[in-house]
Amino acid sequence: MKNAEIKNDKEKININGTPETPEAKKGAEGGAGDGEGTLPAEEADPGVLQKLLSEQTARADDYYNRLVRLQADFENFRRRTRQDMENFYKYASEQLIRALLPVLDNFERALAAEGDTIDSFKAGVEMIYRQLLDVLAAEGLAAIPACGEQFDPVRHEAVLQEESGDYPDNTVIEELRRGYFLKDKVIRPSMVKVARTSQNK
Fold first, then answer.
1. What is the model's pLDDT at position 40?
2. Beta strands in the chain (DSSP E)
3. CB-based contacts of 174, cutoff 8 Å, min separation 6
4. CB–CB of 39/45 below 8 Å?
5. Which of 29, 100, 160, 176 is the most exposed place for a label (fewest CB within 10 A)?
6. What number of H helices and E strands is found in the chain?
């Protein structure tokens, strides 16, 4: 009986010679976990910490310098964009004006001509007119169809009505002032006279 008690006591003693009580076992198991949040001995050295601090400081300085350069580049971009937009609006009509200069030259030559007959003067004006139309057409200008068209309040401005049995109601029968498209946009509606049947009096 005594030998059995001695054997049980030996089983309760751990290899360090301390009793293997539940508290001692829990402390031994928890000791390994507590060490996980501590720095290794070599990293706790002041020299190593100083080196790590220097590296992080250099990295932070590099990020800051990049940010400053990026901000400066963005400000330069904004300034250039603003200047480009100002120049665009300032000289937007330059190409059109250049194209109209020959027309202006021809007008000046026609006005300066002496001894021309009415017919030759008229022919010169017609030539300049066609030249002007060509320049404007190249920029996207086109006349709005009017006479014989059904009245369209977007393209036509009716200023007169006339009773007529020859045209359907609301047909444009006369163009009083020509209207124009610029590409696909109406920039000036045609001023027109519209037919009205007797039933719509």
1. 60
2. 141-143, 156-163, 172-177, 180-182, 185-188, 190-196
3. 147, 160, 162, 192, 193
4. no
5. 29
6. 5, 6
Give per-residue burial for 83-110: e unless 16+ CB within 10 Å, then b.
eeeeeeeeeeeeeeeebbeebeebeeeb
Q: Are 163 and 129 in contact (CB under 8 A)?
A: no
**What are the C-alpha distances in Å from 20 to residues 16, 32, 33, 81, 170?**
10, 17, 19, 80, 112
Domain annotation for the chain: domains and CATH numbers = 66-139 (3.90.20.20), 141-201 (2.30.22.10)
The residue length of the chain stands at 201
- pLDDT tens string 6-40: 445 544 444 444 455 555 455 445 444 444 555 56
